[in-house]
């Protein structure tokens, strides 16, 4: 590297201008950067040594808490043993072992996994598999995809097309054609539901209405988050997912659950599919797979889906798809260690027990300043705030900033404060999180 380049880099120091950050207003960040130097357990630690309670599990992913030593050591050991091997026509023992254990962890009947590197890649892979599945069965008519309002499915072109968050699509079109969307299964009458709303299963009938318009024989798959996450934490009404499953079965349509957020214990079960008692044909996962320590994603499919690809000649590639870093040795080591930690520390049982207190404490904020709705399920929570007159969408960010100043990291999204803590959160930490939020709300105008 030229000396001039070295000098330029040195002069920058830690100024955040070289790193173009995701989902970040760069000029505002440069004026007031948020930097974390290390993490442990339930806390981030700033370069100055200030401890911040993590109310977001990083970004919905550090489910077992930060710096789990077994995961750290597994990554270190793997890096020294096998730094890389392709998964194209070759593999390594950890990939085979992790695939088997992950499928044991998944709902019964989902027994094959295609490894990728993120939730976005998992969704785009699942959509391609869904179309290719029908093609392999001689039904190439089925190409249409159905998503849902407020759904988030990553930032690839496929995921963005089936997502239901219009602002994130602006500037990137045209996206995929032949995509339709279900409405949000929620209305004002369901506000302040603790857990799954008792009413609202009838929203699933909108799928039948869409199929009347689009022809069910042209539809490849329906993709939904079991619990809408980034779009605002909307739990499914009781009976809603069951009805979607039945309609998909009736018309021969694959049902995909995007469990990038809800997978790995978030609802007190390995996946939301088990917690809610509805099994899809395909699950996408990422985030919690490696406890956020190494990028990884997966697409877990049923035996029926996998089997459709295995009908041709045995020496021909069944799925022309993949990534350089699929089943990376470090990621597989981290994934195996994460499953060890979950089993040895009883993480899922702890999450299930804590969720009762978590949800009850969250709903105590009903009646607090500006609170318009509270939605909870498992260890997820959204506190929706009434919009500030003339400045809609600003209260969530202001509330998140006030919480950070008070030592708790939450996520502000428009006029909503979103929470998804590590599953190891204690009773006192639950009280701290919601106590800080209550104080922050009192400061908002």
Task: Supply the key terms.
single chain; 445 residues; Aspartate Aminotransferase, domain 1; Aspartate Aminotransferase, domain 2; seven-stranded mixed beta sheet; disordered N terminus
Q: Regarding CATH, which class of the largest domain?
A: Alpha Beta
CATH superfamily of the largest domain: Type I PLP-dependent aspartate aminotransferase-like (Major domain)
| Termini Cα gap | 52 Å
β-strand percent reads 15-25%
Give the count of helical stretches.
15
Number of strands: 15
The CATH architecture of the largest domain? 3-Layer(aba) Sandwich
Task: Characterise the protein shown here.
With 445 residues, the chain is of the alpha/beta class. It has two domains: 127 residues, Aspartate Aminotransferase, domain 1 (Alpha-Beta Complex), CATH 3.90.1150; 275 residues, 3-Layer(aba) Sandwich (Aspartate Aminotransferase, domain 2), CATH 3.40.640. Helix content is 37%, strand content 16%. A seven-stranded mixed β-sheet has the order 4-10-9-8-7-5-6, sandwiched between helices. Helix 4 runs antiparallel to helix 12, helix 6 packs across helix 11 and helix 13 packs parallel to helix 15. The longest helix is centred in the N-terminal third of the chain and has 18 residues. The relative contact order is 0.15. The N terminus is likely disordered.
Topology, please?
Layout: H1 3-12, H2 26-31, E1 38-40, E2 43-45, E3 51-54, H3 57-60, H4 69-81, H5 93-105, E4 110-116, H6 119-136, E5 144-148, H7 157-162, E6 179-182, H8 205-214, E7 219-224, H9 240-251, E8 254-258, H10 272-276, E9 282-285, E10 297-302, H11 303-309, H12 329-345, H13 347-363, E11 371-377, E12 380-385, H14 395-405, E13 408-409, E14 411-413, E15 416-419, H15 427-443
Parallel strand pairs: 3-13, 5-6, 5-7, 7-8, 8-9
Antiparallel strand pairs: 1-2, 2-3, 4-10, 9-10, 11-12, 12-15, 14-15
Helix pairs in contact: 4-12, 5-12, 6-11, 13-15, 14-15
